[in-house]
C-alpha cells in the first residue's frame, strides 16, 4: 500500500505555495490545508468585532469561539467562517497586512497550530504556510521550501489582484510583499524559516508544471 504522507510547503508570499499545494494535493488525492487562509480568517473575524492585533487574550477567546473549515468543489477550494463563505473577503490587500500582524500573536498561533495538527494528523495532507516544516509538523515526511525573487512574487500577486478586478499598483504590490516578508521573517514567534531538511525550490525561472514535476518526483521517492 502507498503510504499517506504529511507534506509541508513553506515559503514567503507569492512563491507559488497555494497553486502548487492545490495541484499537488489534487494529483495525490490528498487534503489541502491552506494555513495562511486560517490566519486570514481570524484576522477578518477580529476586524469585524474590533479586536486589535496586540490584544492576545481577546484573540485567544475569539479563536476558541469561531469555526473555520475548508470545502473543496472540484478545483475550487473555499474557506468558511461560522458557516459563511469568506474566501474572497480574506484576500484583499488590507486583510493581507492585518493578517501579518494577527499571525504574530502567540495565542493565535497556538490555537491555529492545534487545529492544523488535528487536521493533518492522519496523513494524506499537503499543508502550506510559513512554519509547517519547522513547528507544526517538524517530522513531516516531505518538506518543501518554495522561493522566488521579490519582483517575481510581487508581479504574481499583482496579476492575481488585477484578475479579481482590484485597482492596484505594481510597485506598491511589490513593496507590500517585501514589507510582509520582513514582518513574517523577523517576528519573535514561529518566524518564516527554511527547515534544515527542506528541499528548496526557486520558482523564479520555472513554470508551475516544472515545479510540480519536481515535487512529484520527491514525493514518489519518499512513498
Ligand atoms: O500565505 P498567505 O499570504 O495567505 O498568509 C497570510 C499571512 O499569514 C502572512 O502574512 C503570513 C501568515 N502566516 C503565518 O504566519 N503562518 C502560516 N503558517 C501561514 C501564514
Keywords for this structure?
223 residues, alpha/beta, Rossmann fold, five-stranded parallel β-sheet, three-stranded antiparallel β-sheet, 51% helix, globular, binds 2'-deoxycytidine-5'-monophosphate
Task: Provide an overview of this structure.
A hairpin with a 2-residue loop joins strand 4 and strand 5. The relative contact order is 0.21. Helix 1 crosses helix 9. It is globular and about 50 Å long. The strands form two sheets. A five-stranded parallel sheet has the order 2-6-1-7-8, with helices on both faces. It has a three-stranded antiparallel sheet with strand order 3-4-5. It has 223 residues and is an alpha/beta fold. The protein contains nine helices and eight strands. The protein has a single domain, classed as 3-Layer(aba) Sandwich (Rossmann fold). It binds 2'-deoxycytidine-5'-monophosphate. The site of 2'-deoxycytidine-5'-monophosphate has 13 residues, from helix 2, helix 4 and helix 8.
Write the layout of secondary structure elements.
Elements: E1 6-10, H1 17-28, E2 31-34, H2 35-49, H3 56-65, E3 68-73, E4 76-81, E5 84-85, H4 93-102, H5 106-120, E6 125-129, H6 132-136, E7 142-147, H7 150-163, H8 170-186, E8 199-202, H9 208-222
Parallel strand pairs: 1-6, 1-7, 2-6, 7-8
Antiparallel strand pairs: 3-4, 4-5
Residues 13, 35-36, 39-40, 99-100, 103, 129-131, 180, 184 line the site of 2'-deoxycytidine-5'-monophosphate (DC).
Class from helix and strand fractions: alpha/beta
Beta-strand content estimate: 15-25%
**Average of per-residue pLDDT values:** 94
Unreliable stretches covering 5 or more consecutive residues = none
What would CATH call the architecture?
3-Layer(aba) Sandwich
User: What helical percentage do the residues reach?
Assistant: 40-55%
CATH superfamily: P-loop containing nucleotide triphosphate hydrolases
Count the helices. How many? Answer: 9
Query: How far is it from the N-terminal to the C-terminal residue, by CA?
Result: 9 Å
Radius of gyration: 17 Å
Shape: globular
Class, according to the CATH hierarchy?
Answer: Alpha Beta
The main sheet comes to:
5 strands, parallel
CATH topology: Rossmann fold
Question: How many domain regions?
Answer: 1
- Identify the quaternary structure here: single chain
Number of strands: 8
The distinct bound ligands, ions and cofactors come out as: 2'-deoxycytidine-5'-monophosphate
- In the sheet with the most strands, the strands line up as 2-6-1-7-8
